[in-house]
């Protein structure tokens, strides 16, 4: 039995449209499923836990939504051990990208129904679980601004979710002020003046495919950290095109770190986000939980071939 978890308003309504497509495909494939329409991020975890508790033969919980919807059910899936599947229907869809899940609904469904899964790490920030990245500073302010904006809805309506983030970057660049930050990675503290952002990543991209930590691997038990500091507004603007291909990491004002735990303390309150959802403005302490989540991913097939195994649930990366 598959549980489909649907956020009808993800991707500006793409969630519901995608679900209708998937429903028709499931009937054709005669797959046994239950559908759960979740109403809010706050109630999703308990809705999912209650539904999962009703039977024991769950093969996977497949989210029809974006990164925020996936974020809302991570606690329930970690507790239950039921693998996560994804039918991308958000604006950014960076979880899908990170696990090589096709963005087209039918192809994503076909992969999910193959039931090949990998073990992925989770990020734990004061008990809040995140799968893609915990970002703080400029990027988080962009997300806060984009989520509150009208242009996000307009861009989603014309199928240009990524454009909303580009507009958000330009909009935030006008007002954001960098400040000092202290970053402690596996107990080693480093301070950076004029810091714009600190991103703690489990997957390579966020913001709709921006490769902020291109080397990040979901199953390596490590957090990848990107700190951007000591740079002017003009330089920061010129940095963005390089992030699309992940070429920023060698620039002199970009520092990349890697470790099992990371604490981030800005001198002034700065927003943080996990999977694009607001985490507040308090200093961050992020720990890696190795292999805490099973994810249905085409990467499992590649890992299985490399390992010479059948690949039911492998350690990812
Ligand atoms: N399980 C849920 N059910 C209903 N609403 C949710 C749920 N989880 C999160 N939300 C709310 O719905 C909003 C949109 O969902 P989601 O983040 O999945 O889509 P998106 O923002 O369009 O895409 P992405 O996160 O991939 O950029 C979230 O920002 C959050 O406010």
From TrEMBL:
Q: Report the EC number(s), separated by commas if there are several.
A: 2.7.1.-
> Gene3D superfamilies per the record?
2.60.200.40, Probable inorganic polyphosphate/atp-NAD kinase, domain 1
Q: Which Pfam families does this UniProt record tie to the protein?
A: DAGK_cat (PF00781), YegS_C (PF19279)
InterPro entries with a match to the protein in the record: ATP-NAD_kinase_N, Diacylglycerol/lipid_kinase, Diacylglycerol_kinase_cat_dom, Lipid_Phosphate_FormReg, NAD/diacylglycerol_kinase_sf, YegS/DAGK_C
Which keywords accompany this UniProt record? ATP-binding, Kinase, Lipid biosynthesis, Lipid metabolism, Magnesium, Metal-binding, Nucleotide-binding, Phospholipid biosynthesis, Phospholipid metabolism, Transferase
Gene Ontology MF: a single term = kinase activity
The UniProt entry's sequence similarity note says: Belongs to the diacylglycerol/lipid kinase family.
Q: Which PANTHER family match?
A: LIPID KINASE YEGS, SPHINGOSINE KINASE
Stated name of the protein: Diacylglycerol/lipid kinase family protein
- The organism of origin for this protein: Paenibacillus rhizoplanae
**What taxonomic classification does the UniProt entry list for its organism?**
Bacteria, Bacillati, Bacillota, Bacilli, Bacillales
